[in-house]
Amino acid sequence: MSRIGVAFDKARADGRAVLVGCMPAGFPTVEGSIAAMTAMVEAGVDVIEVEIPYSDPVMDGPVIQKASDIALAGGVRTRDTLRVIEAVAATGAPVVTMTYWNPVERYGVDAFARDLASAGGTGLVTPDLIPEEAGEWLAASDAYGLDRTFLVSPSSTDARLAMTVEHCRGFVYATAIMGVTGARAKTSDAAPILVSRTREVTDLPVGVGLGVGTGAQAGTVAGYADGVIVGSALIRCLLDAPDEASGLAALRALSGELAEGVRNPTR
User: Fold this and answer.
1) Which of 49, 51, 80, 147 does the annotation list as catalytic?
2) What would the pLDDT profile of 132-162 be if each residue is shown by its tens digit?
3) Residues with Cβ within 8 Å of residue 194, at least 6 apart in sequence
């Protein structure tokens, strides 16, 4: 079983959901991103999703875009991301990588899978790669024992849903809304239906992302999903802070609030 699978099983045994916290590598700096993700783990985040900064995202909202722009302006590259993954994996938390496909293709798919596995990464979330076009990645992930997480959405047909989850390993990423990332005042009404539909065609855990920003919202999503995925709200802690120390303090506080939320699901 994958390390992600172990984390989901442990959480399920505890009667709660997994908390996945997302942060771009290299934001605000390479060392700063390592410190941020380590603080998230220490505050109760179960799984860290390290995003490879990318200049032309299709799913990221303005908060993640701004953080990625800062990282790219600072010169972060894919090899820096691998160093971040290695450092964060050393905390003992499972580390999954979210990336658009172009950086992996430029690096070399087999070489990237090899180096990701060597760094301690568990696999990839690939928002712009669909299973029909993922032959090279499917082969490389099999060769190096990596998970692969494709996305399903409220607009996915039943046939599309079944085909997509058939190619997933580790967990399935259910996008709660039709749109880009970003914390919202209200969680999605479509997400519970999507999770239910997904569970009809797979035994894999289902994580819900897009829109969660508070402990109460995390508790709501944890009431029907196996995982709660949070990015923009955590990143904003650093973006809005006047200095690094206060940013890390805010990040720890929100991580703890979200961790409390998934440990007390609303059912």
Assistant:
1) 49
2) 999 999 999 999 999 999 999 999 999 999 9
3) 152, 153, 154, 156, 174, 175, 176, 208
